[in-house]
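Our collaborator T.R. sent over the components below with a one-line note: 'Predict the complex.' Nothing else. No constraints on interfaces, no templates requested, no preferences about which chain binds where. So this is a plain run: every listed entity goes in together, and whatever single assembly comes back becomes the starting point for the next discussion.
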Amino acid sequence: MRVLLVDDEKEFVTTLAERLTLRGFKVDFATLAHDALALAEKNIYDLAVLDMKMPGTSGLELKGLLQKIQKDLKFIFLTGHGSEADYAAGSSESACYLVKPINIDILIAQMHEAVKP
Amino acid sequence: MRNDAMPVQYDVIGGAGLRFFGKVSASITHELKNVLAIINENAGLLEDLSYAAQRGSAIDPDRLNRACLQFTKQINRADGIMKNMSHFAHSVDAFDGQINLYELTALVANLAGRLAAMRKLTLEVTPPSTPVVFSGNPFLLQNFIWLCLEFAFTATAAGGTLLLSPAKDDGGATLRIGGIDGLDDTFVSQLPAGSEDLLVALGATVSADYHTKELILHLAWRLS
Amino acid sequence: MSILSHFKPAFWQKSELSTGPFRQMFNFRRIWKIAVLATSLVTLIPLIFITSIDYNFTQKSIESENLLRTLRIGSNARRSISFFLSERLSALTFVVRENQLEELSQPEKLSSILTHLSDSFNGFVDLGVIDQNGLQTNYVGPYSLEGKDYSNQGWFKEIQDKGFYISEVFLGYRNVPHLIIAAKHTLPNGSFFVLRAALDTTRFNELLHYFELSGRGDAFLINHEGIIQTPTLYHEPVFEKIPYRVPEYSEHTEIREEKNKVGENIIICSAYIPDSPYILIIVKEKNELMKSWQETRLELIGFLIFSITIILIAILGFSTYMVNSMYLLDQRRLGSLHQAEYSNKLASIGRLAAGVAHEINNPLAIINEKAGLIKDIIVYSNDFPKNPRIVELLDSVLASVERCGKITKRLLGFARHIDSAIENVQLNNIITEVLGFLNKEAEYRSITVNIDFVDNIPEFQSDRGKLQQIFLNIINNAFAAMSNGGRLDIKVRPKGEKNVVASITDNGCGMSESDLGKIFEPFYSTKTKTGGTGLGLSITYGLIKELGGNIDVTSRLGEGSTFTITLPLQLPHKSAEK
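Returned assembly:
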């Protein structure tokens, strides 16, 4: 599975990327929204894992922009705020939200779930 | 219900509230620092082991494992602490909100966990038979329960267990704090300044049962 | 004084705060005093005025009635006495006209006439016939006056002119008071004779005591020299002089007021008895006369005092009730403001704490991942532990832990000073501390924060908690006014010897002129769409005032606002510290 990871915390996103790579995923990461969009222009991804809150952009906004580039892209959201997940889960998007710090096994299970046809 | 003829002394309550907030924040911060300290040590330990291994010493896999487990354990612990803090911080958002007495009591018990542990006391919250839900000011209530707990800590011998039982009552809800073996009729004078004003603002009364060694907080709020 | 304290109403205690949004709306003591004073004056002055007019009028009325009554009695008495005297004189006149001198000169005839006169009129004591030479030629009566010569006596001369005579009372023979009346008859041949009679004064005196006089009234006769002629009740005995001035001649009954020997007020009614040497005097004690008035007067005054008391009680009661109600309402209003301040205070701190909790999540997540990766390396690769990545990862963990540490330290520092206390503060530090909590939000929203501090800002005594809240509020507002990518400039400078100035400028949406005038009013909000209560600035204003400072705003719609806060280096003495 080819995954795009986007989070403004560099330490976090690089380490997670490495761990996923060790587990057999093909991972690209970005810390800025426009880098993420640039990557999406160049490569095809199965799934994007986005942070909900980044400087200047929210995760949902970025999702919308990415979907314009790759409309079949699947999404998983990461958030540091428990209540944010509650709020977003109530919205019309049936997306997956995980609260940081995350359990990597759960993340992987959700990733597989998300890309199921 | 609050007696409108008697003005609520918000400046007194405000002072009490701030002190409460300060105490809880300080407690949380200290707990967190402990967690971080442990993580710190474990990281340091692993570093040492790694250096040692690089220089050729043998590694004890158990030690490694334990260190890694510690990480997970402490992270989870920190996570729990931050969840509590988040709940607590949001309890001031609304002056009048929905309160689940059991959840609120459990939160305060969690927040007071470290202080209890320092005195070798255990806090237990028993869930009520039916949910006790009503509207009120969550922060004021937390503040008062905290003050009761602080008092209970001073009046209970080490090794004891304090039992908190929220329950429905005709006319409102009650919270019993049992196991205060040192409870006597001086308890009213031992509650700190601002307690009376908090009670007025809450529309609550507090009494003590010296036989069952219980402090009883009675809330006359509307049950929703 | 505990009884008084029972009655002391709630609004009586002085308010501590006299400025800021939490001052009382009125000076209740003063209002109460003014209300009571004004109402009392308006009700009592007319009441007292009218009562005193009524009092005076009634008093004068009663006085004049007394005088009139006395005057009437005087007139009646004068008439009676005059009648008495003229009646007897007429009897004599009848006798002299009816009888010849020769008859009258006969003792038996005279005696019989005397008897008849005595029976008819009472009081005739003796009877005498006096010839034109003044010699008493015939006499009947208890005294031996036959042959007495009256030619030299004044009255004999008088009677020749006037034709009759009435004497004063005198002590005659046997020291019994009596008076003489005489009638002259002119004979056809030009000569005359006089019939003289002595009257005892008993009937005469009885006349005067017939009049029931109120006011310890004393009625008696005096002669024109003021010698008392008839017995008095309260004055000197007969033949002594009255202690009062003899009234001047008048045809009418006169009345005057005077003071007696002991200084009491008296009324003297006087009437000259015509054709006689007598003056009727009636003396009444004014106080006795006015006695009934005095009782009435007491009742009147008593009623007035009672009314005044009732009115005052009603005024006091009502005013107290009204002002107390105003006070309680105002207290309730203040209570609402206090409640709102309390909410506001905790809300901003709550947000702060929530922000901290959120901030810590990131480093925790990082630690989590790093630790996880270490495990993974152990699991997945063979070259652990020699792998140098391990150390790198662990360093990263340590760095994250340090980061958490900084955040918690910041929170702890804030929590320690959370309660009100006066201490030494360094303004730059406080602003930096507050900004520290808003760092993340600034980062997320790409807001640039520029700090322009100088080193020579002195430390000063102030309330750290209040300063934190003031700046937290202003900077939060600035953030709320700006859209993402905005810019905040904060500048701190000393101002003169005694103050320090902090100015906070944003390039947010700004405010209109009309808004500018109202932003410090409680409940005025332009942020209602984002859930603002409109209280933050009014409370901030109050806090600044409590610290003895000042706040100023300039703004341009669409361009941004600048808040300028001036703080004194010396706290004012009357700071409302609780």
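Summary for T.R.: Chain A has one domain: 2-115.
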